[in-house]
């Protein structure tokens, strides 16, 4: 546990705010080493544009990573052909994906203890003729896992999702016993591994208003959710629900819970983002690596202005560090 903890940070879309958010963090002393996986030229150009005196150090595996204020280690990635803030360029798309691949493969190889991602622009990557639906699916395929779970978190609240980016009309059919079992088991296991919670208590939302009200407002709770939760409780999982989503997110329930499991995207995330937008973290569970991300997009209109807020990236790094330390402690049979 005494060895330096090193996180890889991908700078995201070159035209967006990711590069300057990383440079903002470089101005602060850090409790772990950070390696920026990005084009060195891009970072130098953006620092010049913003008038920042950041010292960039070339990094290769095996080298210590910078944690001093004003210094930043950079794993240089080639292929960034345009560095103009606010102006998307499809020619940069493969470069963006290369940064993700290098960071993730570095985590799998033990070069990094986790990765933190600044925002990418899915549209411009697809316009370049590359099929890309997001960080989560990209990392799922690269790591070769069957199921991943999206969880957003602040310091006070964790919300995981059974389904993610689906039209509302498709959600009910997607909530199958197998999917619910997989998601819930991953959530419980990763709360233990990455957050050090030995017996996590998970609140589970129903799908329908009033959690179906005994079948009068829908039968998904009776036919799918309740039997599956009963099965999982038999495995030792501490699950409370299904609960009406409109009362689940109240202190009465949340004060004694470690996470909430929502059935669909807009059931759980509006509550979390209202509670902590700008300091929330997107976490991918189910991977063999630590991955956290910001809770916002590329903000092209702010790029290059120096006014973007690094709060979410700062929180993502802090959360990634905590998760990595918990995993190291679990592997060593220690507590944290």
UniProtKB/TrEMBL annotation:
Q: Which residues bind substrate?
A: 135-136, 273, 282, 291
E.C. code: 1.1.1.262
- Write out the annotated subcellular location: Cytoplasm
Gene3D superfamilies from the xrefs?
Answer: Isopropylmalate Dehydrogenase
Pathway assignment reads: Cofactor biosynthesis; pyridoxine 5'-phosphate biosynthesis; pyridoxine 5'-phosphate from D-erythrose 4-phosphate: step 4/5
Which cellular components does GO assign to this protein?
cytoplasm
Q: Name one Pfam family in it.
A: PdxA
The enzyme class is: oxidoreductase
Q: Does the keyword Chaperone apply?
A: no
Question: Which reaction equations make up its catalytic activity?
Answer: 4-(phosphooxy)-L-threonine + NAD(+) = 3-amino-2-oxopropyl phosphate + CO2 + NADH
- What does the UniProt cofactor note say? Binds 1 divalent metal cation per subunit. Can use ions such as Zn(2+), Mg(2+) or Co(2+).
Superkingdom in the source lineage: Bacteria
GO process terms (BP): pyridoxal phosphate biosynthetic process; pyridoxine biosynthetic process
Q: Name one GO molecular function term.
A: 4-hydroxythreonine-4-phosphate dehydrogenase activity
Q: Which cofactor does it need?
A: Zn(2+); Mg(2+); Co(2+)
Key words, A-Z: Cobalt, Cytoplasm, Magnesium, Metal-binding, NAD, NADP, Oxidoreductase, Pyridoxine biosynthesis, Zinc
**Which residues participate in a divalent metal cation binding?**
165, 210, 265
Assembly and binders: Homodimer.
Task: Quote additional remarks.
Answer: The active site is located at the dimer interface.
Report the family membership. Answer: Belongs to the PdxA family.
State the function annotated in the UniProt record. Answer: Catalyzes the NAD(P)-dependent oxidation of 4-(phosphooxy)-L-threonine (HTP) into 2-amino-3-oxo-4-(phosphooxy)butyric acid which spontaneously decarboxylates to form 3-amino-2-oxopropyl phosphate (AHAP).
Database matches in HAMAP family = PdxA
Protein name (Swiss-Prot/TrEMBL):
4-hydroxythreonine-4-phosphate dehydrogenase
Q: Which organism is it from?
A: Marinobacter fuscus
Q: List the lineage, top down.
A: Bacteria, Pseudomonadati, Pseudomonadota, Gammaproteobacteria, Pseudomonadales
